[in-house]
Amino acid sequence: MERVEEDDPKQNNVKTRPKGGLVTMPFIFSNEICEKLAVVGFNTNMISYLTTQLHMPLTKAANTLTNFGGTASLTPLLGAFISDSYAGRFWTITVASIIYQIGMTCLTLSAILPQLRPPPCKGEQVCQQATAGQLAILYGSLLLGALGSGGIRPCVVAFGADQFDESNPKEATKTWKYFNWYYFVMGVSILVAVTVLVYIQDNIGWGWGLGVPTIAMFLSIITFIIGYPLYRNMDPAGSPFTRLLQVSVSAFKKRKLAMVSDPNLLYRNDELDASISVGGKLVHTPDMTFLDKAAIVTEEDIVKPGQAPNLWRLNTIHRVEELKAVIRMGPIWAAGILLITAYAQQNTFSLQQAKTMNRHLTKSFEIPAGSMTVFTMVSMLSTIALYDRVLVRIARRYTGLDRGISFLHRMGIGFMISVLATLVAGFTEVKRKEAALAHGLQDKAHAIIPISVFWLVPQYSLHGIAEAFMSIGHLEFFYDQAPESMRSTATALFWTAISVGNYMSTLLVSLVHKFSARADGSNWLPDNNLNEGKLEYFYWLITALQVVNLIYYICCAKLYTYKPIQIHGKDSESEGDAGVELASKV
Q: Mind telling me which residue stretches traverse the membrane in this protein (predicted)?
């Protein structure tokens, strides 16, 4: 596990409680809840704020939105690097939250103070666009928000998991529960954001709509800092990227050397690795042997006793195995991209479908098309609760695992349900177009077709169930299988998969729109009238790609080698002894 900063009870003659545990969760979750309220509450309605309050042209507003989203998805890599290399998770989260708070405060002030935004439009006159100074405040606020979010996202989930000691059997079993409830809490905050905050923004005003999450963020920072004496903290162990690069360079320099016959001859140095192997040393694995050459000791590498070797020429087997672990995670990481691509359609084409359907619950109340994602969130939250309280107990009887099923199996179930979600979406689109044809509305782009919007509930709900299985399993996989000294960095990979999945959606839509165009103007994804397109073909194309992706994932999961570690305190040093255990059992 990680190094714990605690007072020595022998010195103080006072019995101190162990740090970490469930008591720290309210302090940590409060930070995550407020971050999600701010990000989702603003992003969901951001296009409305930019066009109605700052009078931006639609294309410029859309570009601003995508640029902000792309930046916010990449900054977790920077936050993870700072956390693992220099500051540690607690201080990274604290400073990032303060940066985020400044950005949200500036944004809220711009919505409240008239001089920080253009005057309201009057009558038929051309609306005055925001000045350069007003735009500078907007872009600066968004940049601060992206930087703050980049420090919070990769660290808060890993920091929460750090509060459970993996070497303690009683606490180790609580880690998988933590990931379930972390995602549950995140889902609840998103649900509140897309309902309550959006309602406040549209009906009460943007000052309150942005002010509420800003105030909540301030209170969460205070709460998070108050919990400091309770936390189990880790000392940063230096740049993980530097270590990975050092192993790569040293292996390349020694590429022509013959491999040693006995892996026990490879270089080991417990003192050198002490800060990056607190929970246990990684032991040699027989794959990717070309990297093992970085741990071959030559005459040039011999140094005086107590002197550190040149790490650009010689590395310990623990550091070599760190790089192997990261490489092994790559294929599993890539498998998660396409699920995000499928999930992203809810905010694009599924939203367009909803706009053309009857959304009335009563004669006077109509469900906003954008609120259909509520069904996704409710199904996700329900699945998480059912999984934690019922499914795990049933599965535990057959597998013997405390978590019920392994995270690789959990991800596989999510992939299969996602395939079903896009398949169902295609058939629902066929039903919607048949209704349009039956009522003679196929040529009317903005006509409301007399078919209930609740036909879309199955596809929204299936996406929520798929996320409850796959995304939580993905997150748990990154934390569990990453070398302990770079867990923030590994958790950041979860967010980069989301980023790449959204970019993949943009690319796929662009390619389909281009290559499905015909001379008569028809297109699978038309610009104006969805009724004249073949959206069902697009959904089924994604379904086919997901089937291929599922087969790819199954192959990767079967070939995957779990991270083997040697727990400190075991007497044996050889790889075949009982001291070597799997970090996660299948």
A: 90-116, 136-160, 181-200, 206-231, 325-345, 365-387, 407-427, 447-472, 493-517, 537-560
